[in-house]
From TrEMBL:
<dbReference type="GO" id="GO:0016853">
    <property type="term" value="F:isomerase activity"/>
</dbReference>
<dbReference type="InterPro" id="IPR018376">
    <property type="entry name" value="Enoyl-CoA_hyd/isom_CS"/>
</dbReference>
<protein>
    <recommendedName>
        <fullName>enoyl-CoA hydratase</fullName>
        <ecNumber>4.2.1.17</ecNumber>
    </recommendedName>
</protein>
<comment type="similarity">
    <text>Belongs to the enoyl-CoA hydratase/isomerase family.</text>
</comment>
<keyword id="KW-0413">Isomerase</keyword>
<dbReference type="GO" id="GO:0006635">
    <property type="term" value="P:fatty acid beta-oxidation"/>
</dbReference>
<dbReference type="InterPro" id="IPR029045">
    <property type="entry name" value="ClpP/crotonase-like_dom_sf"/>
</dbReference>
<dbReference type="InterPro" id="IPR001753">
    <property type="entry name" value="Enoyl-CoA_hydra/iso"/>
</dbReference>
<dbReference type="Pfam" id="PF00378">
    <property type="entry name" value="ECH_1"/>
</dbReference>
<dbReference type="InterPro" id="IPR014748">
    <property type="entry name" value="Enoyl-CoA_hydra_C"/>
</dbReference>
<keyword id="KW-0456">Lyase</keyword>
<dbReference type="GO" id="GO:0004300">
    <property type="term" value="F:enoyl-CoA hydratase activity"/>
</dbReference>
Length: 268
């Protein structure tokens, strides 16, 4: 299934995987207001689509994932726009999306593109990927979650250096610092992202959703609160048809049918 959400964003749904592509290759897929509006609508639609289990974000062409915000729009933004924080709000929706998200990063991931990747659950980079937060060179700062998410991923000191200098980080350096989980050849990027998505989809969907929720929210609280979240989520799973199917299938040495089990949970 192929869908043209708008002239700046394409969505292709195949076998449970939604490939969301920022489609402005003539400007290296720079994010503008139209892209953000399209992303907002797309996220709302895909969240309600039961045929979609995993989202993969990428950029059109072979030069850029997303090379940042559209500078023409950025140049005329006001303090009111800063407080409105539209891009930050959209990326919050990406981070809080109920289904797993993967960033397949090809080429430049600068500014808002880097921050989009940071908002995803998993980041896979092509060998030509480069990451940067160059905003301080424009007299502003990363403000779509970059200062917060990067520090949590790579550590406070390294994140501070990357933000203050605006330096570019290669794919291999990103792998070494834990910014991405894999680096693959450019022609293998989408296949690798799909393989990762398929590995996720082979697991229990409710277990995946709750594990994602506990990891995300548990990271921001004290240890005892995080442990409590973990315990409560597990208690929900222990009562699910999904858990019954998973354990029964293991004992019977067969592949679990989590999709059918998930429907039983929904119908309870």
């Amino acid at each position: 299934m192929n869908t043209e959400h708008s002239d700046v964003l394409t969505v292709e749904v195949t076998d449970g995987i939604a490939l969301v592509t920022v489609n402005r290759p003539e400007v290296r897929n720079a994010i503008n207001a139209t892209v953000l509006q399209a992303l907002t609508g797309t996220l709302a639609e895909l969240a309600e689509d039961d045929d979609v289990q995993v989202l993969v974000f990428t950029g059109a062409g072979d030069k850029a994932f997303v090379a940042g915000a559209d500078i023409n729009e950025l140049a005329v933004r006001t303090p009111k726009d800063g407080l409105k924080a539209t891009m930050q709000g959209v990326y919050e929706k990406v981070e809080q999306f109920p289904k797993p998200t993967i960033a397949a990063v090809n080429g430049y991931a600068f500014g808002g593109g880097h921050e989009l990747a940071l908002a995803c659950d998993i980041r896979i980079a092509a060998t030509n990927a480069q990451f940067a937060l160059p905003e301080t060179g424009l007299g502003i700062m990363p403000a779509a979650g970059g200062t917060q998410r990067l520090a949590k991923l790579v550590g406070l000191g390294r994140a501070t250096e990357i933000v203050l200098t605006g330096r570019r980080v290669t794919a291999q350096d990103a792998l070494a610092m834990g910014l991405v989980t894999q680096v693959v050849e450019q022609d293998q990027l989408l296949d690798t992202a799909r393989e990762t998505a398929q590995a996720i989809m082979a697991k229990g969907p409710l277990a995946i959703q709750l594990a994602k929720t506990v990891i995300r929210h548990g990271f921001d609280v004290d240890h005892q609160t995080g442990i409590l979240l973990e315990r409560l989520a597990q208690s929900v799973l222990y009562s699910s048809a999904e858990k019954a199917e998973g354990t029964t299938a293991f004992l019977e040495k067969r592949t679990p049918d989590f999709r059918t089990a998930a429907q039983k949970d929904v119908s309870k």
